[in-house]
Amino acid sequence: MRNRGHRSRGLVAAVVAALVGIAGLTGCDAVGGNSSGPTGSAAQSRKPSPKPTPDWDRSPRSLAAVGDSITRGFDACSVLTDCPEVSWATGSDAKVKSLAVRLLGRTGASQRSWNYAVTGSRMADLPGQMAQAAARKPQLVTVMAGANDACRSSVSAMTTVADFRTQFEDALSTLRSALPKTQVYVSSVPDLKRLWSQGRTNPMGKQIWKLGICPSMLGDADSLSAAATSRRDRVQDRVESYNTVLEEVCAKDRRCRFDGGAVFEYRFGTAQLSHWDWFHPSVDGQARLAEMAYGVVTARTPSR
Most CB contacts within 10 A, which of 19, 141, 276, 298? Predict the structure, then answer.
């Protein structure tokens, strides 16, 4: 969720120097001998009815992930650093048990899952990531994006809801033009205001926030003034609007499943937050994201 232009490792070092129908059934007639078997209505009654192919496969055999720093495991292992091995979507860490590991097994995940998320990405970057993912021809693509569209230098710099919708539609269109049958799991944007409320009591975390992590929400973190409160509320309103867009656009695609707001509604506590920046998910937080995604992907019916 971190903004692109603020990765100042030197400054961080000074601050913290110690610190993934039936397909031709064959059988025998029960009549035996040279009999031609039942005919007419009797034959019809014995003929199995073909089962329609389901739109959603609960056991996809390959997976590609797109999105932002959360899917890259940013700040989960060390300060201002990606840690893709603990990614909720494609990671290999046993403590996380990523979505890829849960669906494909450890060996399958290492061979048939790919992570194209990029720290700092916004929704406008998603079509390009989708094109990369499509080249692998995965059976499932996971999407977690939108936090950086709200986490801007100011409220006025946030991505408009209309642009967010167009960009997400473009991303899905990019995928569909190449892979019309690939399934898509879409995560809601996390509750940024809750992350602020959980992290604002940690002195070190607030120092890291000052390096440019989500200024629109985390700037002047201790202030409870009317202006600061109004600013945070406007960011929160935008996040909720983004989630409405994700749900609505996904609902138009029969091979897309939105998480029903599960990630937004999850009450991340200090155990689920990075102990470097107290904002991004920790290893435990990544595990919770993997668990939620697995529940949606393997559900018999969509959550919406």
Answer: 141
